[in-house]
Amino acid sequence: IERDYDYTDHGSSYCFYFEPKYFHPTVMIIVIESEISVPRQVLSSVKKACEVFWVDLYNCANRIRTAFEYILDGFLI
Hints:
Layout: E1 2-5, E2 12-15, H1 40-51, H2 57-76
Antiparallel strand pairs: 1-2
Helix pairs in contact: 1-2
């Protein structure tokens, strides 16, 4: 609950603000158009990143970095 100031005749009031902490099933923040053409390891890392997006942003960024590493590994083959 936070105090919200109203610049009309009412003065101020208290309002409820909601912030998501977790989603089940996972909300895919990163949309992958065609999952068939994406390597399994990349897809798995992206899904894991979306799972922890609301809970731990550093962990999410680390999992996205891992997905990019898998993508770059594909160029070496």
